[in-house]
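Let's sit down with a protein and look at its sequence and fold side by side. Which protein we use is up to you, so please pick one and set it down. Label the sequence line and the structure token line clearly, so we can match residues to local backbone shapes. Go ahead whenever you are ready, and we will take it from there:

***
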Amino acid sequence: MSAATVVGLGELMLRLKSPGHERLLQSPALEATFGGAEANVLISLAGFGVATSFVSVLPANAVGDAAIGELRRHGVATDAVVRDGERVGIYYLEAGAAHRSSRVVYDRAGSAMATARPAQFE
């Protein structure tokens, strides 16, 4: 990591969104992506050519692998991501329409980052 690297500490979550402007679970399909404030900022900075690194905890499973792959695809270093825990936090997004506001439901209890301990990080 170079001296000019921007480091973000946070939770990368699985984002499940209803298609278009449908209400949550109005149809049986949900769009799966990843999101989180810190990761979003790092991805944006990486897009401008700034060196970035994400610090977090993600489980050593296929969902954790996909989350790390998404960060790397956008040029964010993931060397400081600890692989531990049982699950990735999830948030459900229902995009607003007309006079209906967007709605978010968080499911973070027991996630790898929620159960992280300071000793896990250098």
